[in-house]
Amino acid sequence: MQKRNGELSSLSLPAAPEGLSEHRGARPVGTGRARAKAIVLGEHAVVYGAPALALPVPQLGVTATAGYSAQSPADPDDFSLTMTGSDSRPKATQASGGLHRLTAEFRAAMGVPDSLHLDVIIDCAIPVGRGLGSSAACARAVVHALADLFDREVTPQMAFDLVQTAENVAHGRASGVDAMAVGATTPLLFQAGRAQELPIGCDGLFVVADSGVAGQTKDAVELLRQGFRQHPGSQAAFVRRASELTDTARLALAEGRPEELGAQLTEYHELLRAGGLSTDRIDGMVAAALDAGGLGAKITGGGMGGCVIALAREEQAAAVTAALLAAGADQTWSVPLREHPGHGH
After folding, report:
1. Which CATH number characterizes residue 111's domain?
2. Which of 91, 218, 243, 289 has the fewest other C-beta atoms within 10 Å?
3. Residue 248 and residue 187 share a domain
């Protein structure tokens, strides 16, 4: 469970209502945190049971702060949400339904009285609609803020299930990779609801570049499904090829073959592009990263906008980053393979 590092005076609410503090040591304020993620390989195919490689992006974080007050008869709503940070309005619109369901599930699981009104403030630095897991990270931060507030212990499985509750409301059927990756401190292999830490044998780093255009995940998923329906056998072929590329990349990452790892990224981009999931700007950014010496590059996330992820040797990273910015990227973030927070050397 994440611990509280501070309090917001705006949420310094009255002492716990009678009956709650007698059972557990509820605090005036609870705080939870999560981070962004990027899919290295496996997006879309992971929904059909294929493996996916996911990378935490620690530079982009979410902090949720939760408080409570007595339920007012004049206000029957038992949950309020305030969001700050970049793109706060679209984030709040996207997240409100899922987070309302999440808090209801938390109450039921943890025995929090219905008579309490929950006040949640989320400060999110993750750009929305970029395939970086903003909604899952917000949900995970809220889970841990509520757990901190009411002094409840949340197991990893409970946290995953609660985040999935919110994700399924926000996006429809979610694979679970975002729910798992936004709580990770190391790169993960995810498949069929299970995750394991990835061994890292490569040097270099991933550069994640924001195209500045929000992706349309639901539209991308439906576009791919339409293609599968129109071409019998194409779904199985897509999942098979995606699995091959992801498995090869996993081994290359573990065994120290960065050139082979990069090649799988670029091949996966071509797979997604053939499905209509890329854009001219994304294609231009991928080409620019490769021309600048990148070992591989691809769109990351749902597609039809969003971000590019490129693999580069350390000595080429500055050139790759500059090339991505020149090709239209709004901003970039670098994640070293060997120096990832929480990963041992």
Report:
1. 3.30.230.10
2. 218
3. no
Q: Tokens 């501070």: give the residue.
A: 6
Q: Please, which residues have CB within 8 angstroms of residue 331's CB and are 6 or more apart in sequence?
A: 209, 210
In the block, residue with structure tokens 């935490």: 56
In a domain, 127, yes or no: yes
In this structure, the answer to whether residues 210 and 169 fall within a common structural domain is no
The pLDDT assigned to 92 comes to 56
Q: Could you list the residue range(s) of the whole structural domain that residue 89 is in?
A: 9-191
Q: Are residues 113 and 203 in the same domain?
A: no
Region of 278 on the Ramachandran plot (φ > 0 left; ψ -120 to 50 alpha; else beta): beta
Determine the 3-state secondary structure of 33 from DSSP: strand
Nearest CA among 34, 63, 50, 278 for reference residue 167: 34
Alpha carbon 256 to its chain centroid, in Å, reads 26
Do 274 and 129 lie in one domain? The reply is: no
Q: What is the pLDDT of residues 183-233, one digit of tens each?
A: 999 999 999 889 999 999 999 999 999 999 998 777 888 899 999 999 999
Alpha helix locations (H) across 256-301? 258-274, 280-291
